[in-house]
Every structure is written in structure tokens, then in C-alpha cells.
């Protein structure tokens, strides 16, 4: 099956005081349209989130940020799309689940109102907007969906707020879902529930997923391929089992070595020096 998303020689730079600071250095990767999951893994500041924001031109304007290369979604270059084309792409083609739903949801509107906005904008063919929103809330496992339609974000737990964000992302039936650390600030039990929900929705709806994370445990149990990023570069890329069982890059080896193991006492975390991390 042909690739749903192709990223070629992507370079992202932020501008300040006449100088350009490049934070992503010519990376390449693809995501198939076959309902698979590609995880982008790395420490904070490695370039994971800015890479995914660039997919739908969500980064700041050209005066403060420049994006070069190609981002092909279904064969069309996102970077050369008009504003109207990008507006249609967001939600209908590529949708996002951002980390920390409490900061993403508007506290002064009900969750039903906020999901309905996405439905009205991208699916004007749906006449019963409220009915569609209740269907979505039910789809993501929120009990008493009709009652919760009128709830405000502060009246929901963190796990329920994240389910609302997932419902909002699914409102337009996207072909690609970008999940940016969807389990941040959630306890372990709720993390497992959210990841199981995403797994079920992926199978039911046939959408592909890009998962941004720093958690190897989530990658192992959920993703098909993994991209390891370090300081704006892709240092390793391959099937999850291959990368986990036979890592080639010192940075990947160090990340795996930092995973706590039951019954094993480790006084110091594994570290790598800068020259070693830059090795090909």
C-alpha cells in the first residue's frame, strides 16, 4: 500500500535576532495508510512535537519559524497548500490529540459544545450535530454520554478529559491521528485504559497513528515501527521488536538501559557523552 504520509528532508528553524536556530535537521520518514502505528521516541527537546506540528503548518509564521523540505499527505505537498486546503486537511486528513487535556480544553464551554464545533466546521453534511457528538462520546467509552454532553471540563477527571480530546479528534474521521504523549499526567491505570482505547479505535476505524512519546513501554505494546530522535536527528528507525532487541545507536542503547528492571538494583543511570551520541 502506498504511503499516507511522506516526510522528506524536513528542516525546521526558529529565528531570533537575525539568527536561525535549526532544531530539526533534514529528517525522512513515512507512515503507511494501513492502520499501523509509527512511534516517534526521544527525550524532551529532541524535535518530536515540532516535527508533528509541521505536518499541518501549525508552527509560527515564516517571520519566526521556517520549514523546508517536503511533507506529502496522499501525494500532495502540505507546505505548498493554500490556507483553505490546510484548513480542510486539519481534522479531516490529520487530527491531533495534545498532551495535558486540561490545558487544551476551553474551561468556559461544555465539552459537547467544543466537540460540536469540530463537527460543524468539517462535517456540515451532518444535520444532527448533537446526536453525532453523543455518538462520539459513547464511542470513546464515556458513560452517560447524553448527560456528559453538558459537562464542563473541570467536572471531569483527567482520563475523561483525554477521552473528550480523542472524541474531538475523531469527529471528522481522520485518516491519520497524531497523539502527542496522550498519557501525560495520567496515573498508570488510566494510561493503560487510554492506550487500549486508541488500539480499539485504530482497529475499528482503520486509521493510522503517529504516537509521540518518551516511554518505551508504551512503544513496545502499541507501535509497529519506532523512530528514535536525538537533538533534531533521526538516529534509528525500524520495526519495534528489531530496535528494542537489537539497538544500533548509542543513544537508543542508553535509553533502553535506563528502563527500570524488577529485581535489579541500579545506583546510577546510564549516560552517554555528546560525541558518542552523534555517532552514526
UniProtKB/TrEMBL annotation:
Molecular function via GO: ATP binding; ATP hydrolysis activity
PROSITE patterns cross-referenced by the UniProt entry: ABC_TRANSPORTER_1, ABC_TRANSPORTER_2
Keywords in alphabetical order: ATP-binding, Cell inner membrane, Cell membrane, Membrane, Nucleotide-binding, Translocase, Transport
One Pfam family here: oligo_HPY
InterPro entries in the cross-refs: AAA+_ATPase (IPR003593), ABC_Ni/Peptide_Import (IPR050388), ABC_transporter-like_ATP-bd (IPR003439), ABC_transporter-like_CS (IPR017871), Oligopep_ABC_C (IPR013563), P-loop_NTPase (IPR027417)
Record Gene3D superfamilies: P-loop containing nucleotide triphosphate hydrolases (3.40.50.300)
Protein name per UniProt: Peptide ABC transporter ATP-binding protein
GO terms (BP aspect): peptide transport
Chief location category: membrane
Keyword Signal carried by entry: no
Amino acid at each position: 500500500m502506498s504511503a499516507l504520509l511522506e516526510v522528506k528532508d524536513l528542516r525546521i528553524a526558529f529565528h531570533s535576532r537575525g539568527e536561525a536556530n535549526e532544531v530539526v535537521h533534514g529528517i525522512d520518514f513515512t507512515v503507511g495508510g494501513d492502520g499501523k502505528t509509527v512511534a516517534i521516541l526521544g527525550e524532551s527537546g529532541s524535535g518530536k512535537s515540532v516535527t508533528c506540528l509541521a505536518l499541518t503548518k501549525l508552527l509560527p509564521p515564516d517571520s519566526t519559524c521556517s520549514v523546508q523540505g517536503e511533507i506529502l499527505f496522499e501525494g500532495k505537498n502540505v507546505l505548498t497548500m493554500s490556507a483553505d486546503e490546510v484548513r480542510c486537511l486539519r481534522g479531516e486528513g490529520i487530527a491531533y490529540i495534545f498532551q495535558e487535556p486540561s490545558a487544551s480544553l476551553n474551561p468556559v464551554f461544555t465539552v459537547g459544545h467544543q466537540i460540536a464545533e469540530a463537527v460543524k466546521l468539517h462535517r456540515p453534511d451532518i444535520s444532527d450535530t448533537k446526536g453525532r457528538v453523543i455518538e462520539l462520546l459513547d464511542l470513546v467509552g464515556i458513560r452517560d454520554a447524553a448527560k456528559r454532553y453538558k459537562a464542563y471540563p473541570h467536572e471531569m477527571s483527567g482520563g475523561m478529559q483525554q477521552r473528550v480530546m480523542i472524541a474531538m479528534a475523531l469527529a471528522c474521521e481522520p485518516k491519520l491521528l497524531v497523539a502527542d504523549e496522550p498519557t501525560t499526567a495520567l496515573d498508570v491505570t488510566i494510561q493503560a485504559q487510554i492506550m487500549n482505547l486508541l488500539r480499539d479505535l485504530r482497529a475499528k476505524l482503520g486509521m493510522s497513528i503517529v504516537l509521540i512519546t518518551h516511554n518505551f513501554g508504551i512503544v513496545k505494546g502499541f507501535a509497529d515501527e519506532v523512530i528514535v530522535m536525538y537533538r533534531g536527528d533521526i538516529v534509528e528507525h525500524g520495526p519495534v521488536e528489531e530496535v528494542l532487541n537489537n539497538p544500533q545507536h548509542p543513544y537508543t542503547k542508553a535509553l533502553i538501559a535506563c528502563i527500570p528492571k524488577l529485581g535489579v538494583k541500579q545506583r546510577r543511570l546510564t549516560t552517554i557523552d555528546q560525541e558518542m551520541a552523534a555517532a552514526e
